């Protein structure tokens, strides 16, 4: 019987092409990351970006005055440090003011997830974590968006179970997503609650496949 643990996944084989593409979701996520970091830290701070991707978020946050370090398991994205977020022993406790993990944790097999959350809580005061929402989504506006009207309809795949070994294909290689069995929003928040106080959480209505969390470490 093979008991070897699955490895955290990298992007698909076309990740070089993906790195060089420009998508509106990159700008949306970067804007929200800046907004959430600024609300936590003000105009300056020491920030670790886990999974820098195409690099737009690092560029913008440096431009706005933050000290940035990046970490990824894949050298394709030219991180400052190569490694996985479930083992960040290269960083000191409380080394960062904030850690950003935008659409990263779903690439971790479940056997590493709690360890990754524990490590993020150990090295940083705040965590900005964005996660994908499974299923299909529709956005309905009753009044113009500028007035805050509208809501999101979700058609979750509640029967879908997260897998410890099999990669799920949606926006890349994912082991789990919000909406899978055992990963309802309530379940995810309870898991985060082991290591963080939840400052805020919200659906990104400018890119509805994303659910965003702003957390404060209980390790500080």
State the fourth-level CATH superfamily: Vaccinia Virus protein VP39
The number of distinct helices, counting runs of at least 4 residues, comes to: 5
Q: Which class in CATH terms?
A: Alpha Beta
Overall pLDDT confidence: 84
Structural class: alpha/beta
Radius of gyration from the alpha-carbon trace, in angstroms: 17 Å
CATH architecture: 3-Layer(aba) Sandwich
**Strand order of the biggest β-sheet:** 3-2-1-4-5-11-10
What does this protein structure show overall?
This protein has 220 residues and is an alpha/beta fold. It has a single domain (15-217), classed as 3-Layer(aba) Sandwich (Rossmann fold). The protein contains 5 helices and 11 strands, in the order H-H-E-H-E-E-E-H-E-E-E-E-E-H-E-E. A hairpin with a 6-residue loop joins strand 10 and strand 11. The longest helix has 18 residues, at 24-41. It is globular and about 40 Å long. Residues 136-140 and 163-167 have low confidence and may be disordered.
Summarize the structure.
The chain has 220 residues and is α/β, with parallel strands linked by helices.
Keywords:
220 residues; alpha/beta; two-stranded antiparallel ribbon; Rossmann fold; seven-stranded mixed sheet; globular; 5 helices
